[in-house]
Amino acid sequence: MRMILSGETGKKMVQRVISLIFILVICFTGVILGNERSRAQLPNEISTEILEIAQVFQEKKINIREWKLYGRNDVYKIRDLVGFQKEVNGLKQKMGHLNWTVEVEEDQWKAIGTHYNDSLKQEESLQLITTHTNSAPTSYLLYEVTGYGWENTSAMEILKDFHSNLTNISQENIEIFSCMTGDFSDKIEDGLQNTTNILLDAFSASVIEELNEDTFVSVSAYTELWNNVLPTHHGKMNLQIGLRKQGLGDKTTVIVGTPIITVEY
């Protein structure tokens, strides 16, 4: 049946349709902006590796003991002790919550700021080191954050603070290293190599170099999951896995790092 509307009724109908479309546009825009805000609240893309490593540890029932994030870059503007002290004063202003010590020795100047956050169980340190032997002074910054255990909410907060502080410390490109240490006590039927292969498969990684002993395995590998890579004689790599078993019945230590392991094991 065809319905014929009067002029006044038609105008009201058109106004309602326009209003409905306007409301839908506002709601759709709100959803889009909400999604963008959610993305903005995530840690910077360059450190999501630690989240992926934690996920693998949890999936494979590996107890997470501690994890570390490092940010490192070279500082080229320090030419003398006055320049070093000026840089230190600037860092103290930017990172005022750190407790600072400064060591001035014959061949090295070192400033170290440290802080422990008891609520997050997080250690934090920032080092500015300048060496000056027979050549021109060379300087670098090293910012390190250590977390203990793994709880998603506090880990995300630590990650956000890490990236915020990196931006505050330096506007230049900073190298990021991620490393996680854990252990497990389950009986391994096929030895450490089998566990290594399981981890390589979890990261979709291919082996570049490998050292395999009865109680120790070390693997350098490459995965397309992450962009940060280092060149080697055998090809590019961005993942290292280390496993060590202390003795019969003891726990096995697992360390995963990208692009390299940054702790002793």
Number of helices: 5
Q: Give the percentage of residues in beta strands.
A: 25-35%
Alpha carbon gap, first and last residue: 82 Å
* Shape category: globular
The largest pleated sheet is described as: 10 strands, antiparallel
Count the E strands: 10
Report the order of strands and helices.
Answer: HHEHEEEEHEHEEEE
Q: Which stretches of 5+ consecutive residues score pLDDT under 50?
A: 1-6, 9-14, 17-46
- Based on secondary structure, the structural category is alpha+beta
Q: Which percent range fits the helix content?
A: 25-40%
Mean pLDDT: 81
Strand order across the biggest sheet? 2-3-4-5-1-6-10-9-8-7
Rg, rounded, reads 26 Å
Furnish the topology, listing elements before pairings:
Blueprint: H1 7-41, H2 49-59, E1 63-75, H3 81-94, E2 99-104, E3 108-117, E4 122-131, E5 138-148, H4 152-169, E6 175-184, H5 192-202, E7 205-212, E8 216-223, E9 239-245, E10 252-258
Description:
The protein is 34% helix and 34% strand. It contains 5 helices and 10 strands; from the N terminus they run ααβαββββαβαββββ. The protein has a 10-stranded antiparallel sheet, with helices on one face. The chain is globular and about 55 Å long. Residues 1-6, 9-14 and 17-46 have low confidence and may be disordered.
